[in-house]
TrEMBL record:
PROSITE patterns cross-referenced by the UniProt entry: N6_MTASE
The protein, known as: Uncharacterized protein
Molecular function, one GO term: methyltransferase activity
GO biological process: methylation
InterPro entries the record matches: DNA_methylase_N6_adenine_CS
Length: 159
C-alpha cells in the first residue's frame, strides 16, 4: 500500500495487530530509513544488514564476508530476515520542530490509538536533544513546573 507523506495510518495499525490479538504497541520514532535491505560495505568487504549471529548474546561483526555468489544466495535463502516494522506515518523533517511540538504529536498518536482501542505503552527515539526534552516532558521526571501541561491544555491519561 502506498504511503502518503505525513498521513497517519491508525486504521491499518489496528488491522496489522489483529492476527496477534494484541492491542498494545510501543512507538519508536527515528529519522532513519525503515526499509529493509541488504547493503555492501566495500571497505570491509562485507554484506551488512543481515541479522548478525550472536555468541554469548553479543552480535558478531563482519560475519557476512564472501566473494562467492553461491554463499550470498545461501544467506538470502537460509537467514531469517527480520520483519520490517509497521510504519504508522512517514514525513520529512527540517529539524526545526520544538520539543513541545514533538510532545503534542506523541499525545495525538496516543489519543488516536486509544480511540482504536490500541494502548501505547511507551515512546522511544534516537538521542536528538529535542526528542530527549520531549521525553522529559512526557515522563514528568524532570518537569519542574507541572502546571505547564495545564497551561498548554494537555491532558494525560495513564493506564
Amino acid at each position: 500500500m502506498r504511503m502518503t507523506d505525513s498521513e497517519f495510518r491508525f486504521q491499518l495499525i489496528k488491522e496489522y495487530l489483529k492476527p496477534n490479538k494484541c492491542n498494545y504497541v510501543f512507538i519508536a520514532e527515528d529519522a532513519t530509513s525503515s526499509i529493509c535491505r541488504i547493503g555492501y560495505d566495500a571497505t570491509l568487504n562485507s554484506f551488512i544488514d543481515f541479522s548478525a549471529p550472536l555468541i554469548g548474546g553479543v552480535p558478531q561483526p563482519n560475519s557476512f564476508q564472501t566473494e562467492n555468489f553461491e554463499q550470498l544466495e545461501l544467506w538470502f535463502n537460509e537467514i531469517v530476515l527480520s520483519d520490517p516494522p509497521f510504519i504508522l506515518a512517514a514525513d520529512r523533517s527540517n529539524n526545526r520542530a520544538k520539543a513541545i511540538e514533538i510532545f503534542k504529536r506523541w499525545l495525538f498518536i496516543y489519543h488516536q490509538c486509544l480511540a482504536q482501542d490500541i494502548h501505547v505503552i511507551g515512546f522511544s527515539t534516537d538521542a536528538d536533544a529535542r526528542f530527549l526534552r520531549a521525553m522529559r516532558l512526557c515522563s514528568r521526571f524532570f518537569l519542574q513546573h507541572y502546571q505547564i501541561l495545564t497551561y498548554l491544555n494537555i491532558k494525560l491519561y495513564f493506564i
